[in-house]
């Protein structure tokens, strides 16, 4: 009689992944239609009314938790887990995965300042060389009109600086002085401290980073992360 054969109710994997399943004996099951018992809820789940439901790790006791994800990051709840994403201007510290570290855009040359860059927590500020003023876009610089005569006589091909009534030539970001008045492009890709973590292509006044197969370019446009 087939009714007398013991059936393993755990064979159909009725419990959640990572949750232990215990098959009931015929005596334990009795007239119940459920022939198994699931063990403790797996990580990422919590028990409610004898059921395992997804645990929202981003909230603790109904309030947003500051301990699950590092400071300067957002927490996104997933089924059975969660994802931490560092804010713009921050990056996960490769030496400490529980820390979102400030990105120094000025040192990494990923800023948009035409002349002078000052790093700030989570961002940067642009300013100008002496004798120049910041434009409305807060990135580019314009020559101060009161220095027009001095700068015209100096003949700088990029930036004219005026300090104490004396004019001298300077260069925009991504360039360096090749003579007293002329600036040439810096090949950032040939520097000892290359700005890109993988492939680097020099451009006029800047550079472009690209990835190797199997990686994707991170939001900072210089580092790469594995896709698999």
From TrEMBL:
<keyword id="KW-0964">Secreted</keyword>
<dbReference type="InterPro" id="IPR049883">
    <property type="entry name" value="NOTCH1_EGF-like"/>
</dbReference>
<dbReference type="GO" id="GO:0005576">
    <property type="term" value="C:extracellular region"/>
</dbReference>
<keyword id="KW-0245">EGF-like domain</keyword>
<keyword id="KW-0677">Repeat</keyword>
<dbReference type="Pfam" id="PF07645">
    <property type="entry name" value="EGF_CA"/>
</dbReference>
<keyword id="KW-0732">Signal</keyword>
<dbReference type="InterPro" id="IPR001881">
    <property type="entry name" value="EGF-like_Ca-bd_dom"/>
</dbReference>
<dbReference type="InterPro" id="IPR000742">
    <property type="entry name" value="EGF"/>
</dbReference>
<feature type="domain" description="EGF-like">
    <location>
        <begin position="102"/>
        <end position="142"/>
    </location>
</feature>
<protein>
    <recommendedName>
        <fullName>EGF-like domain-containing protein</fullName>
    </recommendedName>
</protein>
<dbReference type="InterPro" id="IPR009030">
    <property type="entry name" value="Growth_fac_rcpt_cys_sf"/>
</dbReference>
<dbReference type="InterPro" id="IPR018097">
    <property type="entry name" value="EGF_Ca-bd_CS"/>
</dbReference>
<keyword id="KW-0325">Glycoprotein</keyword>
<dbReference type="InterPro" id="IPR052080">
    <property type="entry name" value="vWF_C/EGF_Fibrillin"/>
</dbReference>
<keyword id="KW-1015">Disulfide bond</keyword>
<dbReference type="GO" id="GO:0005509">
    <property type="term" value="F:calcium ion binding"/>
</dbReference>
<dbReference type="InterPro" id="IPR000152">
    <property type="entry name" value="EGF-type_Asp/Asn_hydroxyl_site"/>
</dbReference>
């Amino acid at each position: 009689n087939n009714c007398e054969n013991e059936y393993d109710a755990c064979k159909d994997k009725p419990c959640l992944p990572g949750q232990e399943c215990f098959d009931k004996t015929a005596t334990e099951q009795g007239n119940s239609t459920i022939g198994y018992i699931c063990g403790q809820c797996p990580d990422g789940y919590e028990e409610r009314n004898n059921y395992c439901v997804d645990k929202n790790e981003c909230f603790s006791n109904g309030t947003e938790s500051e301990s699950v994800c590092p400071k300067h990051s957002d927490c996104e709840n997933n089924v059975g887990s969660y994802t931490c994403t560092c804010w713009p201007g921050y990056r996960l510290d490769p030496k400490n995965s529980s820390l979102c570290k400030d990105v120094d855009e000025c040192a990494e040359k990923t800023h948009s300042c035409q002349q002078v860059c000052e790093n700030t927590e989570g961002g940067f500020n642009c300013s100008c060389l002496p004798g120049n003023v910041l434009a409305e876009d807060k990135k580019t610089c314009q020559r101060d009109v009161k220095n027009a005569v001095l700068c015209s006589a100096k003949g700088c091909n990029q930036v004219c600086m005026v300090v104490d009534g004396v004019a001298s030539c300077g260069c925009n970001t991504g360039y360096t002085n090749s003579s007293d008045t002329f600036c040439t492009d810096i090949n950032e890709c040939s520097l000892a401290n290359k700005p890109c973590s993988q492939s680097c292509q020099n451009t006029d006044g800047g550079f472009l980073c690209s990835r190797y197969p199997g990686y994707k370019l991170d939001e900072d446009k210089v580092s790469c992360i594995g896709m698999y």
